[in-house]
Amino acid sequence: MTFISSVVVGFVAQVTAELPAEVELPTEVTPADAAIGLIGWMIFISSAMLWWRASRRVVGGGGSIIALRPRDTSFWTPALLLQTIGVFIVTFFVSISLSLGAMVGLGWIDPAAETKSGSLLFQILANTLAGVLAVIATLTYLLARNPNALRQLGITWPVGDGRLGLVAAVMLLPPVMILSGLVSHFVEYSHPVIDSLEADKGVGVFLVMLVGTAVITPFVEEFMFRVLLQGGLQGIVDRSPSESQFADEQRLAPEQNVATERMVNATDLEDSNPYAIGTRPLAESSAQVIATSTTVQPHSLSWWPMLFASAVFAAMHIGQGAAWIPLFFLSLGLGYLYRQTGSITAPFVVHAVLNFITMVVTFAQLD
Length: 367
Description:
Number of strands: 2
Oligomer: single chain
Shape: globular
Distance between the termini: 14 Å
Order of helices and strands: HHEHHHHHHHHHEHHH
Helix content: 55-70%
């Protein structure tokens, strides 16, 4: 395997906690290895070009990498946030306990042989199912409190944000890759998904793992850490008196306000994506994007909710080697996407792409 393909494997191992920390270099370069190396170099070069363009935009124009979008006035309160997180946590642990108990009763899991591939697979499935049920229960609770919760939480799927997520994945991949490659040499790494795939290399197991790891897990984690934790804290900050000065400074005069709410469509999303070919430049300041409707509030530029959510996200991966270090910085990137767009789509796409690459490379490297 070429050096760059080795770095790719090491990176995705730490980013999504799916691969071993150390990858041995084969003596011969196969066509698959060469293809991975070529793709890796293309990603590195593309990332460098995108960061250069973004830095010129920020330094030269004084704006941000992604324009800050308007959003509805936050409905979050400290009490509601605590209740909602409580619903998620309680539902998750009750669901996983019941699922594991049922699987043990059916003989699918052998408590005395936890390292067997079958037991590991069912434990991973129970964890995935618990996450799905926790999201459903939490959304049901929020919708009962606020019928517009889905839109206000950013549970929307604009086409433009999917493209933005792909571009963001290219930007975030190499920097975190370099950091991951550095830390992976100091801490031994292991993960149940790797153990399960190594014990059972069947295509069926791989496909089940792929769906759970590259689709379900990214959505559950982005919902928990970005939408609930970061979004909830950000919403509370936006409602606090300490942020009112920012809102007053960004609000247009009454005669300048637009009477109708702006609907975010594909064209609007292109305006906030500085990397799509043929799009217009970003607004020179967030005020130009924010104050477009009387039905939305100017959004706070506070960083601490994003930092706090990223710290918790990283802490949840302590015990998986050094994965928590690059994951913290990855989470900052995902948090920035959610803060600027107000939608789960872009961070979900980044998370899903990285997990997908991880699973494919892992399966391809198994003997």
